[in-house]
Amino acid sequence: MKNYKVGVIGATGMVGQRLITLLSEHPWFHIEVLAASGRSAGKTYEEAVCGRWAMEAPIPDSVKEMTVLDAEKDAEGIASLVDFVFCAVNMDKAATKELEEKYAKLECPVMSNNSANRGVSDVPMIIPEINPEHMEVVSAQKARLGTKRGFISVKSNCSIQSYVPALHPLMKFGITKVLACTYQAISGAGKNFDRWPEMVDNLIPYIGGEEEKSENEPLKIWGKLQDGKIVNASAPAITTQCLRVPVSDGHTAAVFVSFENKPSEEEIKELWKEYKGEPQLLGLPSAPEHFLTYFEEPDRPQAKLDRNLEKGMGVSIGRLRPDSQYDYKFVSLSHNTLRGAAGGNVLMAELYAAKGYFD
Ligand SMILES: NC(=O)c1ccc[n+]([C@@H]2O[C@H](COP(=O)([O-])OP(=O)(O)OC[C@H]3O[C@@H](n4cnc5c(N)ncnc54)[C@H](OP(=O)(O)O)[C@@H]3O)[C@@H](O)[C@H]2O)c1
């Protein structure tokens, strides 16, 4: 069995808490270090998250008494103690980029939830079931950074994980255009209803920067490796609207899609049912048995009923039907802090571990 020492940077935040909950029972990864900002440094983990622990499960006993370190000031010490780090910090883009590069240059691989490095062409942005071949660009990144084992890999934005997984098996029909409206949970903003009471009985039609990410990131996911870079795909054309809705967890997308070669509804459903990626083939610990599940019931998927499908790692789809303007429309849902953040991040790390990148 594989066994790696890991650090969690941003351990006190919403994604950090999820990472800790998942990692505390992980068969391969053992939490060695917790780090956050100078505000939390020096406190025990229990003190640092006092009043803001937002998970249903209690704080794992194994981390309660660990002293939180300063992610910036203690970077060298942290990097020397672990095989790699998970990173989920709420800092500005330039500072996040600098922090992640610092760890990579300290020869400590970084499994990132943050957006700062997503646009860098030699930083792989991985949805493990979709584009594992992009991991190979790491050798070009290491050459740029001058490292032997240090590198950065990112997961994509949580919003696109509600609809890109459903579209991916259909790419062979030549998807020409996509329109997606996303209905995004408040945990995506690091909040719950106690900390964001204005969201009860409300909808906010704006999430800063989200539409740009939702339209651009799929093109990197579907891009090709070329001369040490990932070159973005030029199609499909994608347009989105991203709304914040009063749901605790689970991003839903209403999707419209057109094809060069229009498949039948049966073909689409069959492809969704059969789809397997490397995580399923390798039997990775966090891999859902079924990446995609189609519901025939007309009122599914529902955030409250279906977000925890396959421990929050499965994507649920429903309401596939013809459309008058596009070929088809459907609805899909994924858990934003599990599949869309911490769970997807852990699965990505499992894939790197399985392929020997941390050895
Ligand atoms: N929430 C989601 O669904 C979701 C999904 C995908 C991606 N993400 C991304 O994941 C990242 C974290 O999001 P979140 O929702 O977990 O945010 P959050 O709840 O606000 O937590 C932010 C974390 O960053 C730490 N931090 C802030 N300034 C820091 C600094 N100068 N040095 C080191 N650590 C610092 C905080 O530590 P203190 O407690 O000490 O302040 C805290 O641990 C963001 O980049 C976000 O875009 C979030």
Describe the protein.
The structure is a single chain. This protein has 359 residues and is α/β, with parallel strands linked by helices. Helices cover 27% and strands 22% of the residues. It folds into 2 domains: 4-157 and 342-354, NAD(P)-binding Rossmann-like Domain (Rossmann fold, 3-Layer(aba) Sandwich), CATH 3.40.50; 159-335, Dihydrodipicolinate Reductase, domain 2 (2-Layer Sandwich), CATH 3.30.360.10. The two termini are 13 Å apart. The model has no long low-confidence stretch (mean pLDDT 97). The structure holds NADP nicotinamide-adenine-dinucleotide phosphate. NADP nicotinamide-adenine-dinucleotide phosphate binds at residues 10-16, 36-37, 39-40, 71-72, 88-91, 113-115, 158, 187-188, 190, 336-337, 340-341.
What's the quick description here?
The chain contains twelve helices and 14 strands. By secondary structure, it is an alpha/beta fold. It has two domains: 4-157 and 342-354, Rossmann fold, CATH 3.40.50; 159-335, Dihydrodipicolinate Reductase, domain 2.
Q: How many domains in all?
A: 2
Ligands, ions, cofactors: NADP nicotinamide-adenine-dinucleotide phosphate
* Individual helix count: 12
Name the CATH superfamily classification of the largest domain: Dihydrodipicolinate Reductase, domain 2
Query: Could you tell me the mean pLDDT?
Result: 97
- CATH third-level topology of the largest domain: Dihydrodipicolinate Reductase, domain 2
- Residues in β-strands, percent: 15-25%
Order of strands across the main sheet:
3-2-1-4-5-6
The CATH architecture of the largest domain can be given as: 2-Layer Sandwich
What is the CATH class name of the largest domain?
Answer: Alpha Beta
